[in-house]
Amino acid sequence: MMYTAPVTVDEACQLLASNSAAKVFAGATDLLPQAQAGRRLEDVLVDLKRIPRLMNLEVDDQGWTIGAAASAARLAEHSQLRSEYPGLVEAVALIGSDQIQNRASLGGNLCNASPAADSGPSMVVNEARAVIVSTAGFRTIPIADLVRGPGETSLEPGEFVAEFQLDRPAARRADAYLRFTPRTEMDIAVVGAAARVAVDDAGRCTDAAVVLGAVAPTTVRVGGIAEELVGSTFDEEALARCAALSSEACRPIDDKRGTKEFRRHIAGVLTTRVLRLAAERASEQR
Amino acid sequence: MTVGDNRTRIDAHGKVTGEADYPADLPAEGALHGKVVFSGQAHARMVAMDTSAALADPEVVAVFTAADVPVNEYGLTMFDQPVLVGLNATGIADVASDVSRWEADQIAFVVAESAEAAERGAAALEVEWEQLPAVADIDHALRDEVRVHPESGDSNAYYTYRIRKGDMEAGWAEADVIVEDTYVVPHQEHAYLQPEAGIGYIDSEGRITVKVAGQWTYEELGQILHALDLTEDKVRVVYTAIGGAFGGREDMSVQIVLALAAWKLSQQGETRPIHTVWSREESVVGHHKRHRGRIHAKWGATKDGRITAVESVGYLDAGAYNYTTNKVLGNMHLTVGGAYEIPNAHIDSHGVYTNTVPGGAFRGFGAPQGAFVAESQMNKLAEKLGIDPVELRLRNTLQEGSIGITQVELPAGVSMPEVIAGCRDRSEWGTRPAQVSDLKVFESLPSATDRTRTGRGFACSYKNVGFSFGFPERCDARVEMYGDDEIERVVLHHGGADVGQGAHTAFLQMLAEAAGVDIERVEGVFSDTGSSGDSGSASASRLSWMAGNSILGASEEAAKAWLDGDRPAVGEFRFVPPATETLDPDTGVGQPNFAYGYVAEAVDLAVDIDTGHISIGSVVCSTDVGRAINPTLIEGQVEGAVVQAHGYAISENLQVVDGHILNPRFSGYLIPGILDIPDEVDSHILEIPDPRGPFGVRGMAEMPFIPYAAAVVAALHDATGVWFNEFPLTPSRVLAGLQAAGFSAAG
Ligand SMILES: Cc1cc2nc3c(=O)[nH]c(=O)nc-3n(C[C@H](O)[C@H](O)[C@H](O)COP(=O)(O)OP(=O)(O)OC[C@H]3O[C@@H](n4cnc5c(N)ncnc54)[C@H](O)[C@@H]3O)c2cc1C
Question: Whose CA is nearest to atom 17 of ligand 1?
């Protein structure tokens, strides 16, 4: 096994192009536990953390650029990111513990492609984009197209994610993320739910979306949420219908962490609560 | 005064700085590495084992199998387990050597130049098994279609206690209300920090030496001597820093194979020490658990709240081997009727062999299972009678002079009434609502406040201190006083294990007090069969009580010798408490114990009725310790026990299917995190002296664990009106229970 630490995107692309058995990593908080559990490590490991572009965290009029290897802790500490994307920050701040967040990256969280990854629902609900790079150059895809299934991404050999992009949110728009775990921290989502909500001056819904995690092989965008909510003031009945839509949209499995029925039920509960939270935030934002 | 002082633990510095040696840290330079190989078979007969591929590895030094063990059987209370399961066993064992009765039966010990090579050697073993049907649980076992131990008796239900007291018909006739239910209690994993590990070598005096973490040096020595057919002068057992035990180290793990390997290799001229360390998964799979079980109970009481009759039939899953099941079962048996005066009782308790992980010692030792049943029954009676549950307890409680469930008078010093009343007052029972600060368990999932319910629950219990049922209980101490005109230095030699509870600190405080010297002048040499006598186990909440008495005796002897002019003045003393009795097999009559501890708890709870998430606010634990030798250490025990019980009651959910543990890692077996534990544990320490305890001491370390699950269930009932007869109270179980009781889905 060889450890490499390129300092430019080009160098990293070259390493990947010349070694079919090379693998990139950032915090290694997924990589190392997997190796300890018996998965063979690739012959060449490419550490992305020395590449400035991959560690970048920047905002301008166009939007946000988040380096794929920037740590969750840095994202969580960024006060402007917290005020513009409170739900995304909520999600990354739930990853593991303080120690884990000092290492864990968005790129690793998404490219590890666990159905339970906490940042997935928030990134999808906020319509983030992934900027992918290889020796062939850059390409940009919607985040929802990045993950194909458990452990599987749409990246081609030789490609890795350089950064993520997010638009600046419009006025009176906000997101939120909630997850359900039996243990308060250091536990993996049984269900995760992200919501994005926009309201008008009167607090009436103008747009809404919900994306669920851990209830299907990939994140699930719940259909029909906007139709239920636009024009409403998030009344009980409308939220209950949204909860039912979420429960219905789940394709969960039975496993050690929860039964299908339990996951469906919790998806509904989370949907109600996360929409309320996002709506409150949106009303407070000008 | 050193007794009553909050001395800093003598081992604190080493543990905080990392200097303390745990068995996994022992200097392994130049050491060989051993790998214990588990069978992986819940129930199977070995047909063949080929070690040649493993031995062909140039870095594999040796592979020990059943054929190498002189007497291939061991066990703490019965020799019912092969040291190594396998073929060509010689010797005199009663238990068949070739059958794996549990997935972690050990089949080989591979010794190699490195840990990696030992792993390779283990993987290269070729073993052929003939599958036998696995007895997966108690129900399956009770059908007796498949026998786990055909050599023992005629049923998998191999051990039974009975109580026949009074006249049951009269008891039911007198009863105005009856409460009847079936309770299911879960396994629990000890989850100590230091997994099983140790080193085996030949010491400078030629003794086969194992340095490990355990609870009772002499018992381990005895089992090693039996299995290796050696005499006491040939073997030595030494404890390092232990890293938690909680009963999980009462039974053995790596001791015999380390001794075997050190012994056999030294005969071949190989004298390097052998080091072995289990992974967390190996630890969880490879050592016993708190017993799971099922208990049916039926209690009757009069309108004015007097218990008239208790009927109960309980089963504990012993798993594949007895370990301490016969004793744990006895304790469940004694506590399943609660700490109450019961005129008429009919109780049967059975231990049942299955092909699952053995049940064994774990803080509380059967009392948590018994108390869960008894206290749930009591809380249900209170509801049915419309009597406050604390008041109902006070009307029935055991008190000084009471005749216990085994029809003999309880040992003097019964403080149950004071403890119940103490907890009632301290917790402002009946006069304030539940306090759960900020629902912090919902931090990641804030509850809508209108979807939260709060409640309070109460439970109490008693449990023996010291070994029971006629065991020849004793404790040795040796005290040496050095100096000329005045005593300059006092040295204690003692076998009692400090498993992390702070026992050695308490011993030295008691020694300083007894010898009348400053604490700076005392020191101890501990837990080495080469230099200390038999102190019995660090278990049964017995160590302060027993060791304190032995230290008092040895100090007195040493003081006499000092007055006689001996320098150093040496006192040796074996403390023997009042004898106990085995219970009559048909009626349960007898004096099982010489001392008890008493505890009561009040718990404040909040539950999110949409998710089933439980949060615990304040816990008041009133516990009678007789005399607090070191109040800070006692608070540590109370808080630790409550947190451990919290995991038992709420989150720890060992999944065992067809004899295999499915979640042997802490990512799947959820011990509580710091954010999950109660907001506050109020350690309410009562000091009502035990008339026979040293300085009045009572045992205490298990007690705060015992009533917790029942108190939480009572609080959940107070919050929701729903009773739960099974735990852990995971969100999915709670939610299912609430929904079954008609709670509507999320709003
Ligand atoms: C104790 C503990 C607790 C955890 N708790 C949580 C939790 O609560 N929620 C949660 O979602 N996760 C959790 N995790 C998982 C993990 O921490 C996160 O998924 C984390 O975000 C992974 O980031 P990383 O940088 O460490 O990934 P790495 O381990 O470095 O990489 C993970 C995978 O992604 C690939 N990869 C990394 N970067 C890129 C890139 N730029 N382009 C292409 N592929 C890439 C790697 O090749 C690898 O396959 C936990 C892990 C641990 C050890």
Answer: A29
Give residue-wise pLDDT tens across range B122-160. Answer: 999 999 999 999 999 999 999 999 999 998 899 999 999
| Angle (CA) B174 B315 B131, round 5° | 160
Q: Is the predicted pLDDT of residue A231 greater than 80, yes or no?
A: yes
User: Distances from the Cα of B364 to the Cαs of B196, B234, B645, B661, in angstroms?
Assistant: 22, 35, 10, 23
A230 phi, psi to nearest 5 deg: -60, 130
Q: Chain B within 8 Å of A258 (Cβ-Cβ)?
A: yes
Residue B579: C-alpha distances to residues A30, B402, B404, B469 (Å): 58, 19, 17, 9
Residue A250 Cα to ligand 1 midpoint, Å, equals 24
Q: Does B445 touch chain A (CB under 8 A)?
A: yes
From the CB of A12, is ligand 1 less than 6 Å away? Answer: no
pLDDT at B443: 53
CB A132 within 8 A of CB A139: yes
Q: What percent of chain A has pLDDT over 90?
A: 91
For β-strands B522-526 and B569-575, DSSP reports them as unpaired
Provide the pLDDT for residue A258.
80
User: Which of B440, B445, B666 is most worth mutating to test chain A (most A CB atoms within 10 A of its CB)?
Assistant: B445
Please, which pLDDT band fits residue A38 given cuts at 50, 70 and 90? confident
Of B452, B435, B446, B438, give the one whose Cα is nearest residue B612. B452
* Confidence check: pLDDT of B52 > 80: yes
Q: What is the pTM of this model?
A: 0.96
Among candidate residues B143, B144, B140, B82, the one with its CA nearest the CA of residue B109: B82
| Cis peptide bond N-terminal to B728, omega within 30 | yes
Q: pLDDT (tens digit, 9 = 90+) per residue, B368-388?
A: 999 999 999 999 999 999 999
Q: Which DSSP helix (H) or strand (E) runs through B494?
A: strand B487-494
Helix (H) or strand (E) segment spanning residue B331: helix B325-335
Look at residue B745 and tell me whether its pLDDT is greater than 90. Answer: no
Paired sense of beta strands B487-494 and B522-526, if any: parallel
Read off the pLDDT of each residue in B338-366 and give the average, rounded to a whole number.
Answer: 98
CB contact under 8 A, B732 and A273: no
Residue with the two structure tokens 């050696």:
B230
Decide if B361 contacts B324 (C-beta within 8 A). yes
User: What DSSP character marks residue A69?
Assistant: T
Give ipTM to 2 decimals: 0.94
In angstroms, what CA-CA distances link B310 with B166, B259, B307, B405? 11, 49, 8, 10
Instruction: Give the closest residue to B539 by CA, choosing from B480, B485, B477, B463.
Output: B463
Judged by phi (left if over 0) then psi (alpha if -120 to 50, else beta), residue B413 lies in: left
Among the listed residues B143, B134, B99, B75, the one whose alpha carbon sits nearest the alpha carbon of residue B315? B143
The answer, yes or no, to whether any atom of ligand 1 lies below 6 A from the CB of A41, is no
Q: Do B746 and A268 touch (CB under 8 A)?
A: yes
Is A286's pLDDT higher than 70? no
Q: Among A53-62, A87-96, B435-444, B568-577, where is mean pLDDT lowest? A: B435-444
Top mutation candidate among A16, A110, A112 for ligand 1, by most atoms within 8 Å of CB: A112
Nearest protein Cα to ligand 1, atom 37? A108
Task: Give B137 to chain A, closest Cα distance, Å.
Answer: 19
